[in-house]
Amino acid sequence: MTFTAAQIAMIINGKIEGDATASVQSFGKIEEAVAGQLSFLANPKYEEYLYTTQASIIIVNDSLVLKQNITTTLVRVPDSYTAFATLLSKYQEMVTQKLQGIQQPSYIAESATLGDNIFVAAFVYISENVKLGNGVKLFAGVFLGNNVTVGDNTILHAGVKIYHDCKLGKNITVHAGTVIGSDGFGFAPQSDGIYKKVPQIGNVVIEDFVEIGANATIDRATIGSTLIKKGAKLDNLIQVAHNVEVGTNTVIAAQSGISGSTKIGNNVMIGGQAGIAGHITIADGSKI
After folding, report:
1. For residues 288 and 275, what is the distance between their CA atoms, to the nearest angstrom?
2. Is-above-0.85 flag for pTM?
3. What was the pLDDT predicted at 275?
């Protein structure tokens, strides 16, 4: 796909400085970009490349003061990083919108309800009473257990497994290999030294606009729900135990583990490899 500077500026509400007809067909890092590519400058550490890059169009901050003359076309915006993310999202949306239909072989139970404009890749398994919203995309190897609900425009990448009774909202992205709704780790020690399994009869509820990385695991509740609230972002290789609550717009980096029944507040930031004990409450806005 080809975009002109004028089209890009319209999408991100930017101001053009240079040739409005300049066009790009792909994206590149500012230090490596070639003619026909779009890049951006957000980190001052990379400003030196602004004067040597071959990129045809660069998104920059309004506040940037040029130290040398340049030949590339600039699109100025208040926040270049956010603008570039917006543009990439639009591009990705245009690509995924082309994916529609049901590939074979796949299995769809007769009792399942499918929305409009969905995509079901080969080797997807959709169990009894599953409900898919409009625009849902299911890539190869996705498994949806009985009574699973998946909201509008949610994307489940290859090999995602959603166990029975779990509920996913709208505009969610779950990356490859993630498992949602496996049993919580509940075992009662007995007098003879063995451990008796405690049945895990709850579910997992994931609200709108959540993104979950690859190979993450989110366990179902013993009773009630493990809850990931609206706008939360979870990185790869994260373990969320049974009955945990993750607050609105909370972000958790890779290899973090959260023990059972812990409640994490809104807008919390948790760094990589953090370990969180069970049955505690973490206040809104905390940084770990």
Report:
1. 10
2. yes
3. 97
